[in-house]
Amino acid sequence: MDWGLILSNLFHDTIVFSTALIFAALGGLYSERSGVVNIALEGMMIIGAFTGAVMTFAFQDSLGAWAPWVGFIAAGIAGSIFALPHAVASVTFKADQTVSGVALNFLAAGLSIYLTKIIFDGAGQTPTLNSVFNKFSIPGLSEIPYIGHAIFEAYPTSFLAFIAVFVTWYVVFKTPFGLRLRSVGEHPRAADTVGINVKRMRYTAVMISGMLAALGGATISLTTTSNFSHNTVSGQGFIAIAALIFGKWHPMGAMGAALFFGVAQAIKSLVQIFGLTNYIPTEFIFMLPYVLTILVMAGLVGRSSAPAALGKPYDTGSR
Amino acid sequence: MNRVIAVFTKESFLVPAVAIILGLLTGAIAMLAGGFNPIDAYVALIKKVFGNAYNFGETIRQITPLIFTGLAVAFAFRTGLFNIGAEGQFIVGMIASTVVGVSFDLPAIIHAPLAILAGAVAGGLWGAIAGYLKAARGVNEVITSIMLNWVALYFANWIMNAFFIPAGKQTSEEVKDSAIITIGWLAEMFDNARLHWGTLIAVLAAIFFYIILWKTKSGFELRSVGLNPHASEYAGMNVNRNVVKAMFIGGMFAGIGGATEILGVFHYQAIMTQHTGYGFDGIAVALIGGNTPFGVILAAILFGVLTFGASGMQFSAGVPFELIRVVIASVIFFVAAHGIVKMFIKPILLKKKEGGN
Lengths: 319, 357
Description:
The complex is a heterodimer of chains A (319) and B (357). With 319 residues, chain A is mainly α. Helix content of chain A is 71%, strand content 1%. Chain A has one domain (3-132, 145-300): ABC transporter involved in vitamin B12 uptake, BtuC. Chain B has one domain (65-316). Chain B: One of its GO terms (molecular function) is transmembrane transporter activity. Chain B: This is ABC transporter permease. Chain B: It is a multi-pass membrane protein.
């Protein structure tokens, strides 16, 4: 048994499974750094997966290999529009942000299948797409034995996800926009006093959040599943929230956590490949990522420090 | 008469009522956009639920687990916790009651209550895990309870596969007759709709919810911790213990819900490929019901009528039943953003003020 090859495959699969989580966790990061709880990541991912699949389907005959890119971009736009009601409710109307997020999750689940049935004559899922993202190899680097397959051969969306991590880190910690974003999430009154428009910052953050989470959803339907159905996203938005908290609201941390969940998923498929299912019941293997999450959260994270104003609506008149 | 008007113009009543109307309107707009006739659809929905005895009975069956999971979420909410884990608690309740129902031979008077109790304890303990991790390790209960939902699903399948499902089958043996809580004579009156004692237990659970939270010392502590944990701690209350206790009691409600579903409706446990959905719907029920026991019952009725009637809507008016999720989502949204609703009811409130003076 070639352990190098096994490890190389494990790493490769980890990246595939983590991509969507990285996008969604980064999405959550923008919103929560601005002080708006975003439990609606799941719903935003669903909208992204749905829009990505439908738009790609619409354009795959005319645009061929470019169609998934159209679907991907459309998903981002749809996600930011879908996030708007959350911003309206939680910023303008000072609603309970968790409740508003729950509403969006319900809405996404219902609306996406409702529209799918209308568009595809009553079918509960989109047809299988014949044009989705293909794996992309970085010339030269991908020929390195083992490492090449593990790291430099991936869906283009995976490369974009890692770029997004660095962009997010730069934007949040190195730009004036990032400083305003964080100040609005830590101490909105102080931010307001120095002339930052708290509401506008929060609206922007929530919409960026919707865009990124939807991109995450689109990576699922446009890479691994090749269609959209009711269980395309199946809880990954919630795991992205866990990754965000686990990563202590830091882009690198969130990426690390997303990779951790990716490993748990990848190990799951490895165990099946190696026939260990004769020794371990399959149910325990399916349980693994979730149990690991709980153990790690309980053991490593401890009390994590959320942005100070997270979940608190900002009222101009309050002190 | 004035008192009646006063009740119906109270904000706690008006906001959800207007939110429901706005939700139905949103659904109507979505139907129009999809090329359907909303009036036909809603009429079909109502006809489905109230059209014949069997469907009416089945609607009641549908409402029952929603009351339990709604109470589970609402109870935790009252103590400042967000229990997304009602689904998992519901599942372990199903499992525990199946195990007791299948394995023991006891007189009915002991067996059925014991099976329900097993569901309650299992659900309670499952909820308490999230509570304990929050109290002892500071782990966000939202995350743990989501993860525990998935663990419960696979754990349930494992127990069933390993011990209770004969090889090559998809379902366990039926629970013993002595553990079944179906109400035979009532079911006959409703054309064999699956009516069971669980509905009565759900109402009793709501009363228990009310009494423990508002009429006991320990309920005062639970609510106090929910409103302000710091002040409660300063006042000498043990916040951590209350967190675990709240999650245990919340989990108990969901667990009983799972148990009565097995003992009253299915009588066996099947291998599950996905979640039952009752736990997640319970979140909506609790939110629409304003986290009060009476509100939860009303919201569960609304939710049950809409979801059960949705299949009729699909059958007679061609509207995909997922549309009803859009309606429910809009209702939750408008309940959350009651600021929007207040814009709509401002005229009513102003009139009331004038009338009152």
